[in-house]
Design brief:
126 residues; five-stranded antiparallel beta sheet; 5 strands
């Protein structure tokens, strides 16, 4: 992946708002349409708010993936999965991606050693 934008740590609602602004700015600079920017920021804020209920912090990064035929705008959210005291499903296991998947071109979660990586991808229109 090339053109990586400065990552940020999300710990609060204020951080979610700042992340949304960064995604809009980066999306505008890389050619996402206004509709794509709105969909992506909605998807990211929805997921990060859900994750903050289960995790103390989320490390989010924004990047451009130009290795495929059509370039992709990528948002990655890395977090440590924790088992909630109430016994509910933790972190990525509790994520309901179906509503978010309707907003982006690709959404996936990878897990390894108690950490999870959520990746959201949006195709950049030519």
């Amino acid at each position: 992946m090339a053109d990586v934008f400065r990552p940020m740590t999300v710990r609060s609602e204020h951080d979610v708002v700042v992340l949304r602004q960064r995604i809009r700015e980066a999306g505008r600079a890389t050619g996402l349409t206004l509709t794509q920017q709105a969909k992506l920021t909605t998807a990211v804020s929805t997921i990060t708010r859900r994750l903050l209920l289960r995790c103390s912090q989320i490390m989010c990064g924004i990047a451009m993936d130009e290795q495929n035929q059509s370039p992709m705008f990528v948002v990655e959210c890395r977090f440590t999965e924790q088992t909630p005291a109430d016994g509910a499903q933790a972190g990525a296991h509790a994520l309901e991606l179906h509503d978010v998947q309707a907003l982006v071109d690709e959404a996936s979660v990878a897990r390894a050693s108690g950490e999870a990586l959520l990746i959201l991808r949006m195709r950049i229109a030519a």
